[in-house]
Structures are given as C-alpha cells and as structure tokens.
Design a protein that fits this description.
The chain has one domain. Helices cover 75% and strands 0% of the residues. It has 14 helices and no strands. The longest helix has 24 residues. The relative contact order is 0.15. InterPro entries: CobS. Keywords: Cell membrane, Cobalamin biosynthesis, Magnesium, Membrane, Transferase, Transmembrane, Transmembrane helix.
Length: 250
C-alpha cells in the first residue's frame, strides 16, 4: 500500500516518470496525500539548488526567486498553477454551483484566473526574494515548497466532501482521518524548528501561515462549491506556498 501511495503522490504532484500504482482506492489516496511532502522532496531540492546557483552567479534576488518558483512550477507540470487559475475562475464567474464547476472543468483561464495567478506569483517571487536578500533563501525555498504540499493532508481530512462524484477530488476527499492530519501537521511544525539559518520559531510560523491560508481557501471552496476538486487542491498548494514564503521573507 505504501508503495502505491508513494507512486500516486509522485505521479500526481511531480513530473517524475514513475509507474502507475497497481491499485488506487481510498486508503492509497489518503496515503498519497500524507506522503505528499516526501514526494515534494525532489521539488524542494530543485528550488534550493536554483537559489544556490543564483547566489553563486550573483544574480538579482528577484530573478533568482522567479527562476526557483518557475522551476518548481515546471517540475510539477504546472498543475497547481492551473488549479489556482481554474478555481479563481469558478469562484469569480457565477454564484451557481453547477455553473462554477463547469467553468472549472473547461480548463481555459479567464480574466479572473489570469489575474489571480499573476498576483499570487508576484507575491511568491517577492516573498522568496526577500528571504534570499535576508540570507536564508535556500532554506526558505526548500521549506516553502515542502510546507505547501504538507497542507494537502488538511484538504483531504475526513469530513471534507468532494464537489463532484468523479475526478481527483472524489478520490482523495475525506480519505485521511483527523488524527493523522493533526499528527502530520504537528510533524511539519516540529521539523520546521530545525530549519537551518532561522530562529527556531520561524519555521513553525511559516507552517501555521500556510495552514491558515490553505484552510481559508478550503473553507471558501467547500461552502461555495460544495467540496474539493483537483483544482481546489492545486489552489491550496499555491496559496500555502505564498503564505509560507511571506512568513519567511524578513
């Protein structure tokens, strides 16, 4: 089961060429979301290496931040960015739930989605640039990437419904028991105290900021759309990354 869960996490959250899981059920789906931070390790390493290389080359902090954010986006096939844009279009287009879900299903980005995507990317790059200028850019790049995937456990906790009867949201919605969600988020905060180059409390604050931001998006989508979709999960990841990097910017 763990092998299938890790393969599902890697195949869903990264562009790594991994074999398809032999079985996908709710246990495997829940395990995949719990293992999301582990699957995101290659992305975090990539982000850290980009920042390290940018520093070595003497590139401007904002350029390095843009390259790191872009590298993570490409290495995850742009799925989370696309999910953010589609979610914004759905929430902004219509108060009718079915109409909103239909707009999200189309996949083409409208003005609300494009504007939201640009704004969030500006915030991500600006915040990460601040961390690079402050001298802890490598830590911030890796930690923010990992923490943003850690919030997926919150989004898939038991009691969170799916907005549709099919799709990724239906597979993972409610697949994680609350004790496991609490345990994994506490583990994130615990590991964050060990972040090199930061005061011990800075990492947990970044975790709290990411969880709060993702929780707000999750609340809005469940009340407005009736539950989560794959796009909503992507939106939560990107908003959580922005919040984590803002917390680590000074």
């Amino acid at each position: 089961m763990i092998g299938d869960a890790l393969q599902m996490a890697l195949g869903t959250l990264t562009a790594l060429p991994v074999p398809a899981p032999r079985t996908i059920d709710r246990r495997v789906a829940g395990g995949a979301m719990l293992l999301a931070p582990l699957a995101a390790v290659p992305l975090a390493v990539l982000a850290g290496l980009v920042v390290l290389a940018g520093d070595a080359l003497g590139l401007p902090a904002i350029a390095v931040a843009g390259l790191a954010v872009g590298a993570v986006g490409l290495a995850s096939r742009g799925l989370h960015l696309d999910g953010l844009a589609d979610t914004a279009d759905g929430l902004g287009a219509s108060f009718d739930r079915e109409r909103a879900l239909e707009i999200m299903r189309r996949g083409d980005s409208g003005p609300t989605g494009v504007a939201t995507l640009v704004l969030v990317l500006i915030v991500q790059c600006g915040a990460l640039s601040g961390a690079i200028s402050a001298g802890h850019g490598v830590t911030a790049a890796t930690a923010g990437t990992l923490v943003s995937r850690w919030v997926l456990a919150l989004c898939c906790t038991r009691g969170v419904p799916s907005a549709r009867p099919d799709g990724l949201g239906a597979t993972v919605a409610g697949s994680i028991r609350l004790p496991w969600t609490v345990a994994t988020l506490c583990a994130a905060a615990g590991f964050a105290t060990l972040a090199p180059g930061l005061e011990w409390w800075r990492g947990p604050v970044a975790v709290a900021a990411a969880v709060a931001a993702a929780g707000l998006v999750l609340w809005r989508c469940t009340t407005r759309l009736g539950g989560i979709t794959g796009d909503v999960l992507g939106a939560c990841v990107e908003i959580a990354a922005a919040a984590a990097w803002l917390a680590l910017a000074p």
